[in-house]
Queue: 3 jobs
Job 1
Amino acid sequence: MSSYELFIGLRYTRAKRRNHFISFISMTSMIGIALGVAALIVVLSVMNGFQHELRTRILGVASHIQITGGNNTLSDWPGMVKFVQGSKQVKGAAPYIVEQGMLSFDQAVQGTIVRGILPAEEGRVADIGAQMKVGKLSNLKPGEFGIVLGMELAQSLGAGLGDKVVLMAPQGQFTPAGIVPRIKQFTVVGIFQVGMYEYDASLALIHMDDAAKLYRMGDQVSGVRLKLENLDDAPEIARDLAKQLAAFGAYYVSDWTVEHANFFRAVRMEKRVMFVILTLIVAVAAFNIVSTLVMAVTDKRADIAILRTLGASPRSIMKIFIVQGAAIGFIGTALGAVGGVILALNISTVVPFIENLFGVHFLSKEVYYISELPSQLQSGDVITITLVSLVLSLLATLYPSWRASNINPAEALRYE
């Protein structure tokens, strides 16, 4: 592209004094593109923030990888822990027992998932200790039959710190009167809240020794839970472990992407849908460039004819108007990208300001566990949005520019 094509194209972004309407349409297109790009960046950053926050809360209770035996039990768990900790990617490992149960207190009865843990080891694979609202995880001691409840579960039962709750195991024992479920009284020594209803309403923690006695596990456990240096490597590491353990017997290895596949698949789908919907805003603004260039071509017919008579080729005329439309798209995209990045990085300041200004609260603490809008800006999203906006803006310039290149100089100058 020659310098005169670039110069004239940029010069045409400003209309003549006699016609400011073209400048107004150009400015409107530019602002529309900027708003669309900024909205895309902010919305996707907030969705990334929600995804990260939810994933953090889920994996604060769940594990990155779980290993269990073929019959859902594991005998030599100390040997398994030693084996997996030989891997550089494994940050921590801890055994667990998981069974179903029924909790009762006063007149309330609730089904629950009972997880037996070693409090001293649990911090290596989960962050429940940091989510304790009442009491401490270390209050679980072998033989004392203490229990830690999720916040929602405790509220459903009406139980608090120090209360005695009854835990019934579904595996019954035979008596002359028939099969009777095993029943044991536990003392509430703590309450946690991780912010995920699935866990807060159904999970109860007890010491692993107490769980082994109640469920008659003996020296066996349900499995071993692993925490990795990088949770995104979980599927690959799980496959490698499964291949290595296949030589020692029947073991089942699962990772967090399998256990919560539907949830995270839905989040990714929502992000893609939002990207498509908000891209339409950018598309509408970008294709306003078409009307801008059509009017510019009509306004510049005489100039085009003169340039053609001076030797400019149809290709040069086309490049001039492509430059004009691309300049509008580039400036709008740049403004939108800068504004979107600034807003996404400061969403925790902007949202409270708007809430205080209008006296509203977007995410009430009484309704939502996440009461503040999280934001996680990803460079890949910004680059993708910017490229999409620039491509749409460039595509919008092609037809009007082609029409300009086909103007007949003699026909254009006939009435000038």
Job 2
Amino acid sequence: MANCVLYCVNLLKMPFEWLVGLRYTRAGRRNGRNSFISFISAISMAGIGLGVTALIVVLSVYNGFQTVVTERMVSVLGHVEIYDPRGVGLEDWHAVAADAARNRQVTGAAPFLELQGMLVHGGDRLQPSIVRGVLPGEEPKVSDIGMRITEGSLDDLKPGAFNIILGAELARELDVKPGDRVALAISQGNSVSNMAPTMRSFTVAGTFEVGHNQFDAGLALVHMQDAQEIINASGPFGIRLRLQDMQKSRAVADELRTVLPANLVIYDWTKLNTAWFAAVKSQKNMMFIILTLIIAVAAFNLVATLVMTVTDKQADIAILRTLGASRFSIMKIFVVQGALVGVFGTAIGVVCGVLLALNVGHIVGGIEKTFGIHFLAKEIYFISAVPSDLRWSDVGAIGATSLLLALVSTLYPSWRASRVKPAEALRYE
């Protein structure tokens, strides 16, 4: 590759610093020292490529897990939520939904009412949960939870029947199955005189499994009318919206705040789980920093390579100085040499990383099939394949970081080369 670049440089009649730097980059065979320096240079290039590859693959897999979890969360939560913080209920939720639907991004709206309580079964099985009141005919417009029901269906939630659909893990913890009875205990008020909870018995009509423990272990669905009757609410507490593009939820929320009544609170899906998304971002940043150390180690090898090259080429440097080359020109020679190692290593790493990231699911699947092992147990992670989401913004940041580290690594050796004194270097030549 260096020969090809050198040929191109000759054709373009580039400055001599490029010519000399490219010649130093090529494998030298004149003596054992040159061969050893070339070997160390190749190791540095391979180390940079390995670090870039690992960073691209790991971040792509991390993005894949984040995307899968986010999609599952949003499929239950909705893209935008509108609710009345007074807790008295929206008596005319249809009007609010109609006003929100005027936004071109809104494709569906459905009311909801959430209660926090304790589900009890058999006297010794207690599980805290969020009980969500929904309208079976409207819920599919804003969530995919109806498609995640493993037993029963949303149509089993009939007004006045007091049926309930539990998350699969919640049902396992309560040790119940369809047809069993569970009691819902909800605290009414905060005063000492009203400490006794409201109790209501429900019949388990089915279970759902969305693949996210927060909902599978802590969410239950009942009919809206039944939920309103328990707490004597006049209507749903809020409305959830589905958008054409979930990534525009923040802009849509801002627009709705200008057209809907000021007493309504509007959140987009990124605000509903702020702590989780903040933790994910922090972990991804830490992962980037930790894996960048691999590239940094390779960059340190590059420093050693250039220092050895400077020591070996002192006579050449002295001759160039006597021919009129400036100290800055000498610096440029070794900056070119180190930068080329960084460019080639980064290019190799980007190509390998992108190819691996795009095919990591097939590669892991092949390894599992060949050796009879499973990296992701579906019973634990709810997914059977390693997800990958390659983002070119990450690839660009990784490539730029790698090139920057390689460039910084050339500064000290090139400065040292520029300080070589011709007379002393040629004294014993």
Job 3
Amino acid sequence: MKRILIIEDEKDLAELLAFNLEKEGFETRCAFDGISGLAAARSESPDLVVLDLMLPGILGTEVCKALRKEPATARTPVLMVTAKSDEIDRVVGFEVGADDYIVKPFSMRELTLRIKAILRRSEVVQTPDSPMVTLGEITIDTERHRVVSSSVDIDLTSTEFKLLRYLAERRGRVISRDQLLQDVWSYHEVGDTRTVDTHITRLRNKLGAPGEQIKTVRGFGYKIEEN
């Protein structure tokens, strides 16, 4: 049973989310401020965190950054929830390492679908026939969920790892943003393509110079090439 940690300061909403997610077969735990939420994430190792942006004590962005800095929680998927819908808030959420973003008010169906999609992305698919993907100075170990760029270990979120692997396994092919949303994010309806752009930028930055192998095809999408 997958464990979901809900960090949300509106107690009634947190308990409603917990009730509905438990009906979907998840185990849940609620925290009502950033400090206790961060402590719960550290001690309980949830499979996913539903994280409100505006929290007392510590903002959701700071909680997310703290999770990403610690080895035990660096790859824990985070779905950021907020009442704000400005683009800058979405971008900030992704830049601090959130895997996805949902804006209040939202339906339980949408939340559940987003959570299930993130959990599918976070599952490491074993490929014993070809566990290593090498692309110039980038090496992807699909069995160990490990990426090395210019001889340096790179810490990626589950979404970033899946995005890099997806592009690397299709090297030279141009992949549209909509296709990436469908295959990497598991969105079966039209989504916000800026989600892709923000993750690509973050991925390039983490990879350093070899990240320039990820090329933008203006007006369409991305491809990855060997230098």
